[in-house]
Amino acid sequence: MSLSSSNEMPRAYSPNEVEQPLYRFWMEKGYFTPTVDPSKKPFVVIMPLPNVTGDLHLGHALTMSIQDILTRWHRMMGESALWLPGKDHAGIATQVVVERQLASEGASRQELGRDKFLERMWDWVGLYGGKIEEQLKSMGASCDWSRLVFTLDPGPSRAVRTAFLNLYEKGLIYRGERIINWCIRCSTALSDLEVEYEEEDGSLFYVNYPLEDGEGSITVATTRPETMFGDTGVAVHPEDPRYQSLLGRNVILPLANRPIPVVGDEAIEREFGTGVLKVTPGHDIVDFEIGQRHNLPIVMSVDDKGFLTEAAGQFQGQERFEGRRNTAAELERQGHLVKTEPLRHSIGHCQRCATVVEPFVSKQWFIKIDPLAKPAMDAVKDGKVRIVPERFSRVYLNWMENIRDWCISRQLWWGHRIPVWYCDGCDGLTVSVEDATQCRHCGSENITQDPDVLDTWFSSGLWTHSTLGWPGETDDLDYFYPSHVMVTGYDILFFWVARMIMMGIENMGEPPFETVFLHGLVRDAEGRKMSKTTGNVLDPLELTDTYGTDALRFALTTGAAPGNDLRISTDKLESSRNFANKLWNASRFVIGSLEYADAAQGWRELADVSHREDRWILSRLNRVIGRTQEYLERFEIGEAQREVYDFLWNEFCDWYIEFAKIRMRDDAEPSPLPTLAHVLEKTLRLLHPFMPFVTEEVWQRLTKQLPNEDALTESIMIAPYPEEDASRIDETSEAEVAQIITLVRSIRNVRAQLRINPRQELQASLDLQGHDYLVGDEVEAVKGLARLRKLSGADASQVPQDGGVVTVVAGEVVVALPLGEVIDLAQERRRLEGERDEASKHLKRVDSLLARPQFRAKAPEHVVERERERAQGLRERLKRLEEVLAQLPS
RNA sequence: GGGCGGUUAGCUCAGACGGUUAGAGCACCUGCUUUACACGCAGGGGGUCACAGGUUCGAGUCCUGUAUCGCCCACCA
Known about the structure:
Blueprint: H1 15-29, E1 42-46, H2 58-76, E2 80-84, E3 86-87, H3 91-104, H4 109-112, H5 114-128, H6 131-138, E4 149-150, H7 154-169, E5 173-183, E6 188-190, E7 195-210, E8 217-222, E9 233-236, E10 250-253, E11 258-264, E12 276-279, H8 285-293, H9 320-333, E13 337-350, E14 358-367, H10 370-381, E15 386-388, H11 391-401, E16 406-407, E17 409-410, E18 420-423, E19 429-431, E20 447-449, E21 453-454, H12 456-461, H13 463-466, H14 475-480, E22 483-489, H15 493-508, E23 513-519, E24 522-523, H16 540-547, H17 549-557, E25 566-567, H18 570-595, H19 612-633, H20 637-664, H21 673-687, H22 692-705, H23 731-753, E26 762-767, H24 779-786, E27 788-794, H25 798-801, E28 805-809, E29 813-817, H26 825-851, H27 853-858, H28 861-886
Parallel strand pairs: 1-2, 3-4, 9-11, 15-23, 22-23, 24-25, 26-27
Antiparallel strand pairs: 5-6, 5-14, 7-8, 7-13, 9-12, 10-11, 14-16, 17-21, 18-19, 18-20, 26-29, 28-29
Helix pairs in contact: 1-22, 2-17, 10-11, 10-15, 16-17, 17-18, 18-20, 18-21, 18-22, 19-20, 19-21, 19-23, 20-21, 20-24, 21-22, 23-24, 26-28
This protein binds one RNA strand through strand 8, strand 12, helix 8, strand 13 and helix 11.
């Protein structure tokens, strides 16, 4: 089948015309959907689920490109390759978007009510939720759309409830009144990870708290005087000599005028401020812990909306920052404020809306994390899960060691509602996978479900198995779990990867993937993070429109080591596009040549490789195939691509095709067509995972022109990935062609330096010194590529008499280009002296290395041998240069 | 306070296991309508691999330290 309407190949590759039809073709053929086939090896990549809110950005484009490359590669290797796409309801992120929309209409979710609001959310998802799929398709993503899952679908929802129930029954989920991060804008609890800290300028207020017994006062230092109404103690380090006498006594809390105790606690930093901490267990994480240790009561002085409570007396109802200023002013007025110092410190912000987070004591659901973290750490330590690049293992382990219990309840409406029902009668809890209708303890039907939803990352953590049918026992789960590679940015190592490992082990008994491949973040040409506010966001779809999808994919995955951030610029995109175009045109040449001849018989097996040039390119091809495979196995995608790029451009196009053109003019020569076809066809397959569209389009056109020796697959997508054929490696041909190339280059170099008109054909004579192949079957090649009229062998004594320019290649071969009067002999002499000096310098270095006894004694034999050969070659070259110079007039 | 990464050509970056005269793309210079490609061809210039020590026959590559930029984690009130 061919997707092109005509055989004509335009001079430039135009991606826009071929991409959509090709993608449709692949979809229709069902290539993306693997079969559950126990005779085949499965290969599984679970897609990091994009948010339904989202537009595709370059970060997605990068992740998707890598996953698609790996999936296509394994699919071509004959594995049952599953790339499983998903979509995330993204609780807080999506809810914030719709809330903003409501706000612009002057409404709010509270006014709307839960049911109406959720309707609105679903409408919104219906409208925009499909966008990202379309965008992924336009990136060429070969994921199995028939298995697409949304986190709120019945399957994953059931998985969420099941996991919750299991953990609850094991005692790993509990509800408790604890201090959590609270966003007053979103009105919800946040996990530690959802808080982003930033350095900000603030003030440190020094406040005197008088002792209850009237014997002076103690000075505390605080950045948040407005929380003092929640103070229920004052703490000093138990061994701080300055405050020994105060331990166990009371101070009077100013403004509130109530006594609070002085306690000793190791958490106090003696050097900070005055070494005295006011303890506000309701609004500070450290204070909460100190409060617990000393049984201090909790008094909330800021409410869930960020306003001071009645505990703040006269300041009740003031917004927290206003309250801070007013409290400080009142303290000063009453003479309690000793001084104020500027202080730079880090402040937590809500990841989604950037509002300053309020530490807040409230009743929430938590996961007891230690029992889950332990096996998840072991999995990485034991190598059951391998993190690439390896350095992130330490980051992971370090984070896991210090992990705290995970607050999983959110006071949101959009998400998986917590599967817990409270009984009005007996106060008992019912946790259930199915919607509960009666209390498990007393049978009362008077029960109400917990209004809160679960942290989005709870369902994400189950993703590796919930998508395959867990908790059901499905064929998919049996065959495809665990997956092989988890590809994602290092920025969600903790959020997601760590939790998938914990939950995977917990639910499935084994880690959810073998390898975690972490890539870097995409930045703009100046290295800045892309963000809407900076306005430097590049839209992947605009880029694919301008440069082509293959070019974008190539630009994103090349020239960046795993785990390193990368900058994207139009330069990079242009050169990637140029590469696609280069491939297109090389193919145009090959396909065009095939149209006028049926000489490509035997292109697949290549029985006749009598020609040195053919043996050379096949040897090079097979080396490249081997190295490309090796790089892919190591996830060095950029290096793999560079291999193919260099081969195609610098060897196949620059040399082999040029050799071929010369051979095609001469009927006596063996036709290069079978080899041209063979190498191009294999190179296309080698490149297909990286540049799926252009390779498929060209492959379709190429194979149509090829003798149908045995059945080809109908798409390159399902053709086998090339494997290195070691029998094609041919050192001799490689060395000989390398010499031919050097010879041609030397002559071209002379021509360029002497400004000889490119159209002018020269004569050359060679003193071959035994390198007979140079004027044997390669004479036409050398003549053609170096633009020579005549190339003849000569002995050394003749060469200089021909006069003109002389150069030395292959160590010892002398090339003479008689140029008569055109040449300034003095200039030529200087040029040769330059060459001689360089050779002599180099030889000196090699000789001195060889002269060292330790080198000969300790270096491996092959290294010493190589240096000897090098010295020998240089000596020859030097000798020849001296001979030639001796015969030039000085 | 811990930890990690970067520092290689004018710019952006590659450089397993230490072993050719350290590479690419872009930019630059000189030529070129050579019938696949000007999204191109040919040729060329440009780097004491941040710095200082050390290990080694041999260091861009390994070790120690310094500088500098960036990131992550942490309960500095």
